[in-house]
Amino acid sequence: MACSLPLHAPFSSSPRILSYRPAPRTLPLFRRGLRVPYHRSPSPPRALPDVAAGAVAGIRDALADAFLTSPPTWRSAAASNLAVFVSGSPLLLSGLSASGFAAAYLLGTLTWRAFGAQGFLLVVAYFVVGTAVTKLRIRQKEALGVAEKRGGRRGPGSVIGSSAAGCVCALLSIYHAGGTASSELWRLGFVASFCTKLSDTVSSEIGKAFGRTTIGTW
Q1: Structural domain boundaries of the chain?
Q2: What's the whole-model pTM score?
């Protein structure tokens, strides 16, 4: 009896498409020799950069409003002065002690409130030039015993003494003493006080650095 076997298996009309799925990563467990699947946790949402960017934008807008406020208020003057002091703290601390730094901040806030950025820049120029001539040949001045204390870093007494007349003019201008007619007088007195003090500081410090005999207040 003849038996016929099919030489080829019947093909289906539609071919089967096989999909490949990679096996999950496994980490070995040394206890009992087991292996368990390890799935990577999804990364957290990146919300922190957005929050930081929003905070920076808010600070920038607040500082812009403070610098552009005209006429200045006590709040805008304090904010503007704080921004300048934070950015310029290395230079300020090189010429001021810690208590002198605090006194200079009060002086800067008062100046900005009274005369705006222009008056504040005058005080900055006074500080930069006065610190430069004070540091001039500081070792020689210390050897002669005529240098400022604390390596030329000025304390609150020096800051207040240098700015006393200017502070009086600033307060008189803020509270409109004498009316509108006297406003320019207080501004002129403020400028004259710092120019006079700066000329005295420059002449005294240069004299102590290069002169043989100096007469000054130190």
Answers
A1: 89-210
A2: 0.64
